[in-house]
Amino acid sequence: PFVDWFTYGMFYLRVPPRILRKTLCLPFPFQMNSCQATDMLAWGFDYEQSDPETLPITLIQNSDATSTKTISHMIQFVNNGGKFQQYDYGRKKNMEIYGTPDPPMYSLYKFRVPVYLIRGENDLLSTKE
Questions:
Q1: 61 found inside a domain
Q2: Which of 14, 24, 15 has its CA nearest to residue 52?
Q3: Reported pTM
Q4: Is residue 127 included in any domain, yes or no?
């Protein structure tokens, strides 16, 4: 895809945001509070569970790269109503790869590991159900 030309196939989330986070979050208390406010806008408001002094360290240390294909697959998951299926390359390439025009669903019964779904009370990306 077009984005691969700029990203070499990955979104490297560490360098530019890391510089931005260091500028926003360190070293003064007002910067730590701005960092906390930014984090809460994205993930929900809970002042009791957020320590502005440790938040910059957490944000700087816990960012990493991911592939453009992974991002694209996540977007497909959202756009196709949450169907848990393999990557959609388009009808023609799906026929070559999967032998069907649509990507096959993942066989969840083959997973033999315990799965725990955890959400926070202020989690804006999930619901209790």
A1: yes
A2: 24
A3: 0.48
A4: no
